[in-house]
Amino acid sequence: MSAITVEKIGPVTVVTLDRPEVRNAVDAPTALDLYRAFLAFEADAEALVAVFHGAHGHFCAGWDLQAGARLAAEGAASEWLADLDFAPAHAAPLGPRKPAGPLGPMGPTRLLLSKPVIAAVSGAAVAGGMELALWCDLRVMEEDAYFGVYCRRFGVPLIDGGTVRLPRLVGLGRALDLILTGRKVEAAEALQMGLANRVVPSGGARDAAMALAQQLAKFPQETMRADRLNAYEQWDRSLAQALHLEWERSKQRVPDALEGARRFAGGEGRHGRFPS
Questions:
Q1: Which residues, 6+ apart, have CB-to-CB distance to 161 below 8 Å?
Q2: Which of 87, 118, 210, 258 could form a disulfide with 91, with the two C-beta atoms 3.0–4.6 Å apart?
């Protein structure tokens, strides 16, 4: 039985990780199911925003080390690693063990979706679980939740984007502090450094993430997605190249802007009001 459940609530898709016996740690079958769940969200034209959270009070405790120990004992580690070698994005399926596109050890972490995903973080979001949260566009964090590169203690590397996304999000100095020490980062510090986007009372992350997702779903979608993708794709380009890419992609949204101007002139959204 899959440890991943998917619920559709209007334009919002809720993806839930549910392995309470290991604080939602991810083994190979769970990673594949998580990956497939987000590919299905990407392919669903009616799904505009996803909320990703963990059941039973924890987001994700990382890679399942017990499952890793079993892989080693069974001599299956080499086969598992071979399944994770990079395939070209959007490649044709390569068989039942290796689906289309790049599969990460934790599942979807090598994908760049066209639509936003919001992490609702409760309890532990550590090691690979922290990397899953970093993969999301926004992180809503409960006041008693925490991050941490806890895998530092066991020699488990960050191979789901942690060494890439964390420095880009909080800066190299702060990222190296967390990566090298593996220390615990509680919600207040996470908010201060930009690792969390919102901090909410204990037990409130999913509801707050849902409210944020519903807000995003009310905006003109194509323009929001173009702005989002431009922000992601500017990293490896010069300023001139990034500005050119922004213009080439976003000039197609000028008709949307003119329609928005017409609505504003008609009285909509004055004084900073958002859609209700």
A1: 104, 109, 110, 131, 134, 135
A2: 87
Q: For 210-227, give the DSSP string.
A: HHHHHHHHTS-HHHHHHH
Of 87, 6, 5, 94, give the one whose Cα is nearest residue 44. Answer: 6
Q: Which amino acid is present at 164?
A: V
Runs of H (alpha helix) within 44-159: 65-74, 77-83, 128-135
Contact 140, 205 (CB under 8 A): yes
- What is d(CA 173, CA 86) in angstroms, rounded to the nearest whole number? 29
Q: What distance separates the 2 farthest-apart alpha carbons in the chain?
A: 68
Closest CA to 61 of 33, 24, 35: 24
- Angle formed by the axes of helices 162-170 and 128-135, nearest 10°: 60
C-alpha Rg value of the chain to the nearest Å: 19
Contact 129, 24 (CB under 8 A): yes
Task: Express as a percent the part of the chain with pLDDT over 70.
Answer: 86
pLDDT (average), residues 163-181? 96
Task: Say if residue 170's pLDDT is above 90.
Answer: yes
